């Protein structure tokens, strides 16, 4: 049943404390990401019960509402329209939906205080330095994913045209269109880094542009002549971060009358020199080490590496630790033209799909769960796993673990072929599942890459299905009556 985006947005807004409690609104492929002034105002159980909401992920002061691909963009637009109006917060927004009964004010306030204390304790547990750092890394790189996808697909199409000898008059133009963004990705990384850490975005971009400027060939650092692009996105990130700290230091010390002239000048000068005579060399060595390590890992321990990466990726996603891989993917794409890690990690989604199909087959009488699977499965096949994670496998418990088994099997399959000399890479990050086929690249050519990746998906589907069918559900779950009672995100069947 289709839901009206405006109605869903209004329902979500009322349950997160109203417009006055929302400090930021954004979305990714599947999640509405909200920054909240007071997380204690959220009525989480009521939020999870909103039709169309597949799950809720709490990340410090931020709430991520899982809505699914396509749907999330429409609901985000409606949500932004409601928040943009900034209507006065109603009673529910002021009290977080807890209207104290007459004569029971003291008890209500006490319960509210206890609830706020629990929320604050949860926020502190989630606000670890590691998670905060990873969240900031994601804020830098996630906005770049659409361009990476578009350019990656164009690069793949162009490669096919060149290999086939078709449209020779067009392929040079396609080469320029597909590669321009990657040639300047350092500038965008610098811009987003400064923006994320409180600096002036254009100054971050200006400093990062030094990394890719052709003139760096005339500079020698540590006895070695620099080359354009040396250090890549890692060099751009560290350079812009240094520039941001220099800018903030200057803002607090330079008189206002001179600030407009001296602050940007000193920021670019000091950060630029540090980039040329230190950061580019160090970041270049680190980038080279990442590429060498990835190639060695797959060439020598490919099957084992694939098993571990494919099996652990779903838990990494649940913990938010997968964001640490984004700079590594970006570095490999910039350095080698593709990332060999993404096809391995994509097998986790295949295991998830196989597990969901097994649940669909076993829970014949659970109409609610089967409806959820039917609506979420197309997205899962395209590599968008959150609807299946939060709507199916995680609520049931065991299917989440058996999905990891399927992902491990698919990863081992792809890793085995890497050991045999046919590694498969992806020219962009973001897509997964079937959506990754147009972005594949490999040493053995497109046909070999398609066969290896497709074989890995099939392995993940089959093993995920068999493991879930055999041990993923208890007899109590499969023998439930056809009441159609939905399994909420907090319900476990194991």
Radius of gyration using CA atoms only? 25 Å
Percent of residues in beta strands: 5-15%
Which structural class matches the secondary elements? Answer: alpha+beta
**What about the largest sheet?**
4 strands, antiparallel
Mean pLDDT: 85
Helix content: 55-70%
Q: Write down the overall geometry.
A: globular
- Which regions contain 5 or more consecutive residues with pLDDT less than 50? 86-105, 481-494
Head-to-tail CA distance between termini: 29 Å
What is the number of beta strands? 8
Compressed to H and E, one letter per element, the order equals: HEEHEEHHHHHHHHEEHHHHHHHHEEHH
User: Could you give the order of strands across the largest sheet?
Assistant: 1-2-4-3
Our count of helices gives 20
Reconstruct the topology from this structure.
Layout: H1 5-15, E1 22-27, E2 31-36, H2 44-48, E3 55-59, E4 62-66, H3 71-85, H4 91-95, H5 105-126, H6 129-141, H7 145-164, H8 171-183, H9 185-196, H10 201-212, E5 220-221, E6 224-225, H11 232-251, H12 256-319, H13 326-336, H14 342-345, H15 347-362, H16 367-381, H17 386-396, H18 398-419, E7 424-426, E8 440-442, H19 446-471, H20 475-478
Antiparallel strand pairs: 1-2, 2-4, 3-4, 5-6, 7-8
Helix pairs in contact: 1-3, 6-9, 7-8, 9-10, 9-11, 10-11, 10-12, 11-12, 12-13, 12-18, 15-16, 15-17, 15-18, 15-19, 16-17, 17-18, 18-19
What does this structure look like?
By secondary structure, the protein is of the alpha+beta class. It is 65% helix and 6% strand. It contains 20 helices and eight strands. The protein has a four-stranded antiparallel β-sheet. The chain has a two-stranded antiparallel ribbon with strand order 5-6. Strands 7-8 form a two-stranded antiparallel ribbon. A hairpin with a 3-residue loop joins strand 1 and strand 2. Helix 15 runs antiparallel to helix 16 and helix 15 packs across helix 17. It starts with a helix and ends in a 16-residue tail after the last helix. The C terminus is likely disordered.
